[in-house]
Design a protein that fits this description.
This is Tryptophan halogenase. InterPro entries: FAD/NAD-bd_sf, Flavin-dep_Halogenase_NPB, Flavin_halogenase. It holds the Pfam family Trp_halogenase. Belongs to the flavin-dependent halogenase family. Bacterial tryptophan halogenase subfamily. GO terms for molecular function: monooxygenase activity. By secondary structure, the protein is of the alpha+beta class. It folds into two domains: 3-76 and 93-186 and 289-404, FAD/NAD(P)-binding domain (3-Layer(bba) Sandwich); 192-286, D-Amino Acid Oxidase, Chain A, domain 2, CATH 3.30.9.100. The protein has helices at residues 16-26, 51-61, 64-69, 111-124, 243-247, 250-259, 262-267, 317-335, 346-371, 378-389, 395-403, 411-414, 423-445, 473-476; strands spanning 3-12, 32-35, 74-75, 77-81, 89-92, 106-107, 128-130, 134-141, 144-151, 157-167, 183-185, 191-199, 212-217, 220-226, 231-239, 272-273, 283-286, 290-292, 296-297, 300-302, 308-309, 461-462, 469-470. The strands form five sheets. Strands 1, 2, 7, 8, 9, 10, 19 and 20 form an eight-stranded mixed beta sheet that branches. Helix 1 (16-26) runs parallel beside helix 4. The structure holds flavin-adenine dinucleotide.
């Protein structure tokens, strides 16, 4: 007989997207089960984080201290040898009032450590985590998804049934297609990435030593991410036509690409490639730029890479996964209330998530299309960021706000403070303090940080505690 577990929410996948949803749902007193195929720590790419994740969602999750203690390199911004300017140029997250005033706006992280911190935190918050459980399919009844079937480490088939299933199982998700519709692959971003790890690579001088370095060259561009004083993540992103080149000897292909890019060759001139352990492999990733046509159906919702990813150049993946996780948690927390308010049915709640997520995705997408035009210089990239975001602040501030993950003006992403922590005690103090902070940020960025204004006609707004959706004041009156 199949072993069946009943719960409120079944989350598939323990990456940043899955851990975020599960934690924020469990903290509202709902039962959440998280099923993860691997045993953590497990390898994952996606090491350069944005302030919106570190200052925003991670604060809401309550892991700021742990991140600080983990000793990850502080990422103050980015340094780019990109576009028509032959010299490298640098931006600092601190130029945006949204991210100013903090010693550590973001981090470069070993995902094995970062994802473990988020998963442990989910467990501490009451999520029932099962590692080495591979989800094989969803279970449907009367057109509604009501659970998943999976295989545990011993090969035993189990079922987990819940009122909602969240697919956060990443780009290799087996169940995303069960939502209906297709994965729409980008016509524009058809690149592939070849990457490995080095010890002994050079560092930029302080205070930019923790920055991501992105260097364009004839075949594409390189990322160079310091993961510790010793360890560096190095990857080449090249056009898909170079597939043949990387399909043979990967080591040779990576070495040849490095030799074609003088700045990266210089940074690695005294470095050794790591050849053993989780960082010992040279990996290839392709077909990673896509968005799902639909994000939800009754009982099932996609989050993180299961829903979409664009391109690694501005490190938006974990931001989209954790922001999406927060939005989905709001939808589920609202749907799981004992009574459903009029105008807050499941379809509307999922639509709110999807509308906000797509808006954020498209901002990055549209900006990135211009950013790949190598005939422009940084001033035109900044101008484009201002146009894409509709921001009235300076071009540079608009650019930094966008690439820091703050262009949605969600206070949960730019200044989460004690928003999700100790809500009941600090709520009142927080609202007053935040109202002041919002006015300052709004004045400086020209953004619309008034969260009582929905982002679309008939849309919802975040509730006062930031963990649910609410009707805007005019609609509720
Ligand atoms: P994941 O992190 O992929 O987690 C999904 C989890 O689901 C995994 O733990 C997996 O084991 C589990 N799982 C899978 N299938 C099953 C199953 N059947 N049953 C149970 N569990 C399952 N992002 C950044 O923010 N910064 C970067 O610098 C960056 N660089 C990148 C470079 C490249 C080349 C690429 C391709 C991506 C990069 N990204 C970057 C994107 C980043 O890797 C992802 O966006 C991010 O990891 C998405 O998080 P997630 O939680 O959605 O999925």
């Amino acid at each position: 007989m199949t072993d069946i577990t009943e719960t409120d929410v079944v989350v598939v996948g323990g990456g940043p997207g899955g851990s975020t949803v599960a934690t924020l749902v469990a903290r509202q007193g709902h039962r959440a089960v998280l099923l993860e195929k691997e045993r953590f720590p497990r390898y994952q790419i996606g090491e350069s984080l944005l302030p919106s994740t570190v200052q925003g969602v991670c604060r809401l999750l309550g892991v700021s201290e742990e991140l600080k203690e983990a000793g990850f390199p502080v990422k103050r911004g980015g340094t780019f040898r990109w576009g028509s300017n032959p010299e490298p140029w640098t931006f600092d997250f601190g130029i945006s009032p949204q991210f100013a005033g903090t010693a550590a706006p973001a981090y470069q992280v070993e995902r094995m450590k970062f994802d473990q911190i988020l998963l442990n935190n989910a467990m501490r918050n009451g999520v029932d985590v099962h590692e080495e459980h591979t989800v094989t399919d969803v279970i449907e009844e009367n057109g509604r998804v009501c659970g998943v079937s999976c295989t545990d480490a011993a090969g035993v088939r189990r079922e987990f049934r819940g009122r909602y299933v969240v697919d956060a199982s990443g780009n290799l998700s087996r169940i995303h297609s069960r939502v209906g519709g297709k994965r729409q692959y980008s016509e524009y971003f058809r690149n592939l990435a070849l990457f490995g790890y080095f010890t002994g690579g050079k560092r930029m001088p302080a205070p930019t030593s923790g920055n991501i370095l992105a260097v364009a060259f004839s075949a594409g561009w390189f990322w160079y991410i310091p993961l510790s004083d010793e360890l560096t993540s190095v990857g080449a992103v090249v056009h898909r036509e170079a597939l043949d080149r990387v399909q043979g000897d990967r080591e040779q292909a990576l070495n040849e690409l490095i030799a074609e890019c003088p700045m990266i060759a210089d940074f690695l001139s005294d470095a050794q490639r790591v050849t053993s352990g989780p960082y010992g492999e040279i990996r290839v990733r392709k077909d990673y730029s896509y968005i799902q046509e639909k994000f939800s159906r009754p009982g099932l919702v996609l989050v993180g890479d299961a829903a979409g990813f664009i391109d690694p150049v501005f490190s938006s993946g974990v931001h989209l996964a954790t922001y999406g996780g927060l939005l989905v948690a709001r939808s589920l927390n609202t749907a799981l209330r004992p009574t459903t308010e009029s105008g807050m049915d499941e379809k509307t709640l999922f639509e709110e998530y999807e509308a906000r997520y797509r808006q954020e995705y498209m901002r990055f997408h549209d900006f990135l299309v211009s950013f790949y035009d190598m005939h422009s210089d940084e001033e035109s990239y900044f101008w484009k960021a201002k146009r894409v975001t509709g921001n009235t602040a300076s071009e540079l501030q608009s650019f930094v706000s966008l690439v820091g993950g703050g262009s949605s003006d969600e206070r949960a992403l730019v200044n989460a403070g004690s928003y999700g922590d100790r809500q009941d005690v600090e709520e009142a103090i927080w609202s007053v303090a935040q109202a002041g902070a919002n006015i300052q940020v709004q004045a400086a960025t020209g953004g619309t940080i008034d969260e009582q204004v929905p982002v679309r006609d008939g849309g919802l707004v975040p509730s006062a505690d930031g963990m649910h959706w609410a009707l805007p004041a005019t609609a509720a009156a």
